[in-house]
Specification:
The complex is a heterotetramer of chains A (114), B (95), C (315) and D (97). Chain A is an all-alpha fold and 114 residues long. Chain A is built from three helices and no strands. Chain B is 71% helix and 0% strand. The relative contact order of chain B is 0.15. The chains are: A mainly alpha (114), B mainly alpha (95), C mainly alpha (315), D mainly alpha (97). Chains in contact: A-C, B-C, B-D, C-D.
Amino acid sequence: MSSATLAGLVGAALVGLGLYGVIADPQPLRKILAFNLIGSGVFLVFGIVARKGAAAGLSADPVPQAMVITGIVVAFAASALAVALTLRLFEETGRATLRPDAGTKPPGDGAVAE
Amino acid sequence: MSDFLLATAGAILFTVAVGLVRILGGPGDADRMMAAQLIGTGGIASLLLIAAATGARGVDDVALGLAILAAFASAAFVNSGAPAEEPDPNPADDR
Amino acid sequence: MSVLQALDVGLALLVFAVAAWTVFAPGPFAATVGYVVYGLLLSLVWIRLFAVDVALTEAAIGSGVTGVLLIGAAARLRGAETTPAEEALTGLTRLFAAGLCLLVAAALAAVVLLLPDQGPTLAPQSMERLPETGLGNPVTAVLIAFRSFDTMLEKVVLVLGVVGVWSLAADRYWGGAPGEARAERPEPTLAFFAQMLAPIGILVGVHVFWVGADEPGGAFQGGAILAAMWMIVMMARLTEAPQASAFWLRLALIAGPAVFLAAGVAGAVVAGGFFAYPPGLAKPLILFIETFMTFTIAVTLPMLVAGPPRREPRR
Amino acid sequence: MSLALDLFSIAAISAGVFFFLAGTVGLLRFPDALSRLHALTKADNLGLGLIVLGLLPRAESLLAALMLVAIWALVQLAGATAAQLIGRAVRRKGPAI
């Protein structure tokens, strides 16, 4: 088995692991981590597509590589937004949970009541 | 020679993995931060060895980037408020 | 099995194990550190896939900058993470979810195994047209020339990300600076480290950007290293984060996509196509655009990590 | 000459691996966070240092060799800083040592 196929298999496993984390973990921060695992798993599968497209003296197809680079940056921006939302939720309610009926604490230093 | 370099890269990754098993589990968050530090150094070492063995181009820059960012996780750790350290179950004077 | 194959298998197992730790770790902080370790290991995997540009991006953004973001968030959320038991899924639902995920992973694995040995590729076309751009690194050529519209829009996504993060600020902090004003003195070790590292890091960041034309590297990677230098200087409290309302900051945030878009529109007038570069001028133009993009990335990433404004604006 | 250099490389790199091993043994065996931190820094200093030393004769150019040394020096700086920061965090919150 080539190293590319191996990395592709790892990518497939990462997507499965991350999907499980997104579904089964109740905490938002861990959902963000799991979501990033899915993303990097997809990137790895993309990586094997790039590697199998080796031609013209290049050891990997540059087009999927460029898309993965773009993807990593966009994934970071999405994570930063998600983290900011989670922290804001924590500031407002004193808890970080996605349950809609979770109890809210009276607004302290947050700014809802202004 | 390149097989030797690859084997040493594997050996370092293996020892790092064993170390990770120990310190990712804690007991405190400080131990966990050491895991990030350990994989940084071990990762750079195996990166350099793999690069020397396979002759891949531009890997030096990757190692340089990792080296520059090696302490960032620890910096974020101390920077984000007071780190709550669980008391170590085995204090030093138990020895 | 050769030594290299054995190494690949070991690396794959390690990546999988650390990823599993990230999902199943006992606490959120442990999971977050696991994710930082995982990001670092991924850049080793990308080296083995001969994608050095991606490895560099993963090392700088996937591991370094994301690590600061997530560890900071995990430390701040420490009080919040005792999740009530009723939020956890029941055993049966968990089993069902696990089965579903296993199915997805198995399907993807099957696709990976069924891929033909020589897949469709755009590598020959890229190499054929590479001389017209004057660049030596085909990945940079794809990013800035062949698929430049993608890259420009991706910069817009970054700006939108900052807008999104800023709009989470409380009303009275609107337009203020991110990060709490703290009375405590800065950690002296960290200040020393930042003073030592920042000049070297800035040099390396510019180097990575500059060699990106011909060798692995480029605007993203160089910009991310420069961004990290600004972050470490702010973490060491050697400088304060700028106010969100600062005019220069807003200009810096849009400089990259604005210059890129202007060059694209100019291409439609001068070179006969949206985002076409006039022959002969391609390389200087690409470097010009990339300089602004590097700058914008170096300003955007720290603002995304710093979060929404948390201080009342000064007038 | 090339044989002698290869032998030098093998000796230095093996010694480097030994220090990584020693660092890991320390992580496994030491009883408290500060001693484990001490074990960890051995891998930073000597482990990576010896490996870089062993790779120096194989560097393609003087510039590549300087790059290797620079990487090692940066890891030194980062390792020393991280050890200080983590150590102070332990000391502030953990048992008095």
